[in-house]
Description:
Layout: E1 3-7, E2 10-12, E3 18-25, E4 34-39, E5 46-51, E6 57-59, E7 67-72, E8 77-82, E9 91-97, E10 102-103, E11 107-111
Parallel strand pairs: 2-11
Antiparallel strand pairs: 1-3, 3-8, 4-5, 4-9, 5-6, 7-8, 9-10, 9-11
Amino acid sequence: QAQLVESGGGLVQPGGSLRLSCTATGRLFYIGTMSWYRQAPGKQRELVASILTGGGTNYADSMKGRFTISRDNARNTVYLQMNSLKPEDTAVYYCYSVGLNVWGQGTQVTVSS
């Protein structure tokens, strides 16, 4: 079975930065496009950013210029660099593999002073 394991969440002050990682493990036939989603309390899960196997990227408008998604195909890992964090970025962040159709367990990001 394939799994996605996330890390890198935590508590950060407004204006700070965090880097999330998500590594695919197990039986990996085809990972394909990988995405980061987030879900804040009482809100629906929303797309943050996606990255194709070849490196093409797509971002939600509110994250453009602040967040950067990247991937290391040799390590089966996708990253999310988050800068200039705001309190409204507080959420559980999940990674998702389109090819594997698998979600990670989520990592909490809290932006607060």
